[in-house]
Amino acid sequence: MEKDWERAIERGDVEWVHSIVSDVASEHAATDPGSEKGVKQRTTAEDSLSPLINSKDQHGQTALMVAAMRGHTQIVRLLVESRAELNHTAKYNLSALMLAVVNNHIEIVHILARAGADQSIRGAGAPGFASLTALELAEKAGREDIAAILRGPEP
């Protein structure tokens, strides 16, 4: 992961992150979004953002994982809107959703769950995480509010 990008994510520098994402996207902005050329330009912009957004730090974590762990809600929202990989896992097989759960970031849990983050991923290796899903981690921590989000709306 590029150091300036990593530091901005860690600090929660929403303006800097937004400006970088906007700069890359505007390089490929569609002149006519509904046209065949516009669709191709939009796809090119997403492809150009992916290597940056989904790059990994020295621990194998993506920007989304770092932002979710640190509680940077606006950055998480921006990365999700920019099509960051939701289900990447790093050490102990933890995903961004699981990191948000164990750090009690309820709004981020909501954003990631609504975006379709995989709730079946199970932690591995570390005591307290091994074989547990995001829902099971929330239940184990007694966070019924987070568990309710992960269960979804009642019928």
Looking at the structure, the CATH topology is Serine Threonine Protein Phosphatase 5, Tetratricopeptide repeat
CATH class: Mainly Alpha
Helix and strand sequence: HHHHHHHHH
Helix- and strand-based class?
mainly alpha
What would the principal axes of the Cα set say about the shape? globular
Strand content: under 5%
Q: What's the gyration radius in Å?
A: 17 Å
Low-confidence stretches: 38-43
Q: What is the residue-mean pLDDT, rounded to a whole number?
A: 89
Query: Helicity range of the residues?
Result: 55-70%
Task: Write the CATH homologous superfamily.
Answer: Ankyrin repeat-containing domain
How far apart are the termini? 43 Å
What summary fits the major beta sheet? none
Number of helices: 9
| CATH architecture field | Alpha Horseshoe
Can you count the beta strands? 0
Task: Describe the structure in your own words.
This protein is mainly α. The chain has a single domain, classed as Ankyrin repeat-containing domain (Serine Threonine Protein Phosphatase 5, Tetratricopeptide repeat, Alpha Horseshoe). It contains nine helices and no strands. The radius of gyration is 17 Å and the shape is globular. It starts with a helix and ends with a helix. About 4% of the residues have low confidence.
